[in-house]
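ARCHIVE CARD
SHELF: 3
SLOT: left
DATA:
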Amino acid sequence: MKIEKISKDEGYVEITEEEYLEDLASGLSEDEVLKPGRHKFIRGGFLKRHPNFNPATVETVVHISLGLDLEVLKYFKQLAVETNADSYETPIKQALREAMEKARPTRQAVTEHQALIEDPQFIEAVAERVRKLSKKSSAKPVSKSSSANKPRRRASQKTS
């Protein structure tokens, strides 16, 4: 393979017939290897050809290693059999997604409350409301005949 760099963003790759056949013999398919000839490469060419591509919208699967209790694994394997799922991973993913979706409104509410707490206008409005309510409650006279001021009788005291 001969590589010719034209600039930092452009270059050519030449593939010989022999290299092409070697790649096919190694188990790669025709659509996975470059055909013999000279091929031009441009850095960032994909985005130029696909200007509306948004990588944030592409669903990504991440492979992880996760230790599960045997009982949990058996449950999801049985669930996969009962629901004709491709594998036991499918019901695990569904359960995790349901838990995530269920928690989302709570997390959104917390975020909205946090936004209010950080809003100076909201805090000032609440403070003003508290001041008004405090003035109203301190302006009300305490009645002497209220039941709060009367002494309480104990149930064991006899009245004559």
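SLOT: right
DATA:
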Amino acid sequence: MLEHARAPDDVHWDLMVEDGPVLVTWQLAAPPGPRPVAGRRSFDHRPRYLDYEGPLDRERGRVRALARGLARDLAGDPRAARYEVALASDDGARPALSGVWRVTEVGTEGAEVLVEVAPVGPEAHGARAASARPAGAPP
């Protein structure tokens, strides 16, 4: 889960799931939390975003990792937007973000795939840990 700030008033959150040589990505209006969050399918990202935090080239803002974790594909197709995702932040400097959420396709708007990221029962929250990685070279 990355926070992508293009400008102070232009922030979104990218939920990325590794699928071979790419990260299947959904752009969310807010980080996952106790209530469902709306999002849309974004373009595939390069895997270097798993390791990178910092400024982006071509004045596209900055990215910051909020949490890492595991994803379980519920549909057998990485692009079908049906996942259960367990995330945890492990750095005291970051806002706490841990729990289990389900990513579900809820419709389309033109060519865009719309998703909802909703929490899975409170007993599942905080159950798994994730590891942080150091910053690497700019993507």
